[in-house]
Specification:
mainly alpha, Growth Hormone, Chain: A, 15 helices
Length: 393
């Protein structure tokens, strides 16, 4: 009955890194409340708050390949430590400034520092994981992220009622704590490869046609998946008349399923060919969101969340695992950085695009389109991903 049975043999460093990720994500308070702080805490207009979020997203697009490139040149562990420490200091500095240009500059620097963590983390986990257990390792990392994200915004909401400043300082403190864990508990960096010709530019991995096609293939399904942060809440509350609390309950269901089942699913599918796993994950995601065109009852909507959550649990670790297969050992950071950038492109455009379609064409057209758009990724995965399984340990 143990949902995490089978993880006991993973390297000690994997557990430490996942613990540091959990601590860091449990402190994720500042970004979800950034727009609210800009408007209510500093008195700026909603348009200015939108500019701050846009600035963060634009800087994150640059940070992903840059962080991966630096990981290959200097070591992933060093990049992770510096990323956590710098982002903590920048977050703690945001409440100290009052002018709009200063805040915007700090937000962009914060994104550059903080978003460099993800590709470095994925690169070092790839180095630490035995080849046939990479999906399990990425699932454990996602488990840490989801557990942390289920804590951070709740604590942030409580702190925001008393002091926005305390919210930024608490988030910074958890990042410093995570950096301290990595500094004291992880001594050696397995990602310090002795490459004869390290890449000089963070985009040279795009010369790999397999990577280019894979990144193009994943964007449609990620746009579909991110509707749970864009069009879906508006559709549920405004069009169907559900309460925001009902929308929140869908995240509880999603997180519970991930905590209980994701590790076991990815242990069970560890030896599946990559394109089968990717195609199945994309189809489930597309089907879950596409079904909203026809299913509008409370239980039916819970069922759609069940379907796309199974898609998420199948798809996300499989994508990371596939990029790990494609990347040469000395360039894993660069590959993971470009992978993170592609996901960030979907994150930046997906919610906006879904809301645009909802406003112009209505809910039925939106969800039918999303179902077909996600199916496009499934077909692309089947066509462009060669049949491969896990690399032997």
């Amino acid at each position: 009955m143990n949902p995490w049975r089978g993880l006991g043999g993973l390297p000690r460093e994997v557990w430490i890194l996942s613990g540091a990720t959990l601590l860091n994500r449990a402190g994720t308070m500042a970004l979800p409340f950034l727009a609210l702080y800009a408007t209510q805490g500093m008195g700026f207009t909603p348009a200015r708050a939108g500019e701050a979020m846009l600035a963060y997203g634009a800087a994150a697009l640059v940070a992903a390949p840059l962080g991966g490139h630096l990981s290959d040149r200097s070591g992933s562990l060093r990049v992770m430590r510096i990323s956590l420490a710098l982002s903590a200091l920048l977050m703690m500095a945001i409440p100290l400034v009052r002018s709009w240009p200063a805040m915007l500059a700090l937000v962009m620097l914060w994104a550059l520092a903080g978003e460099s963590f993800r590709p470095a983390s994925m690169a070092i986990l790839t180095d630490l994981a035995p080849g046939d257990r990479r999906k399990a390792v990425f699932s454990l990392n996602r488990l840490a992220i989801n557990l942390g994200m289920s804590i951070g915004p709740v604590l942030g909401g409580l702190l925001a009622q008393h002091s926005f400043h305390a919210l930024f300082w608490a988030d910074g403190a958890t990042s410093l704590g995570a950096a301290l864990v990595l500094l004291l508990a992880v001594r050696s960096d397995p990602s310090r490869h002795s490459a004869d010709h390290p890449p000089r530019h963070p985009f040279t991995a795009l010369a790999d046609r397999r990577l280019r096609l894979f990144l193009l293939a994943l964007i449609p399904v990620m746009v579909v998946f991110l509707q749970h942060e864009g069009a879906m809440p508006v559709f549920l509350v405004k069009d169907l008349g559900f309460t925001p609390a009902f929308y929140g309950s869908l995240f509880t269901l999603n997180t519970a399923l991930i905590v209980l089942l994701e590790v076991r699913i990815n242990l069970a599918t560890a030896y599946w060919p990559s394109r089968r796993t990717l195609m199945l994950g994309a189809l489930l995601t597309a089907g879950g969101f596409g079904a909203l065109a026809f299913l509008h009852g409370r239980l039916a909507i819970w069922a759609t969340v069940l379907v796309w959550t199974f898609g998420e649990m199948t798809l996300m670790p499989a994508m990371s695992d596939h990029v790990a297969h494609l990347a040469p050992p000395e360039r894993r950071g660069e590959y993971m950085g470009l992978f993170s950038m592609a996901v960030s492109v979907a994150f930046t455009t997906g919610p906006w695009f879904g809301l645009l379609l909802l406003g112009r064409y209505g809910a039925t057209a939106l969800w039918i389109f999303m179902g077909l758009f996600g199916a496009l990724s499934a077909l692309a995965f089947w066509r462009v991903v060669r049949v491969n399984g896990p690399t032997p340990a």
